[in-house]
Amino acid sequence: MPSLRVARSGDAAPPALVRMRLIATGLLVAMAALFLIARSQQGVHPAWGYVQAFAEAAMVGGLADWFAVTALFRHPLGLPIPHTAIVPRNKDRIGDTLAAFLRDNFLIPSVVARRMRRVDVAAAIGRFLAAPPERGRLWKGASRLVADILESLDQDRLGGMVKTAMADRLRRMDIAPLLGQALDAAIAENRHAPLLDQTIRWVGRTLEANEHLIRDMVHQRAGAIMRWTGLDETLANKIIDGLHKLVADMAEDPGHPLRQRAEEGLARLAFDLQFDPVMRTRVFTLKAELLDNPAMERWWLGMWERMRLGMLKAVRNPDAAMSGYFGDALRQLGETLQQDAGLRRTINRFARRAAVGAAADYGDGIVRLVSDTVRGWDTRTVTGRLENAVGRDLQYIRINGTLVGGLVGLLIHVVDTLL
Question: Which Pfam families match (predicted)?
Answer without folding.
Answer: DUF445 (PF04286)
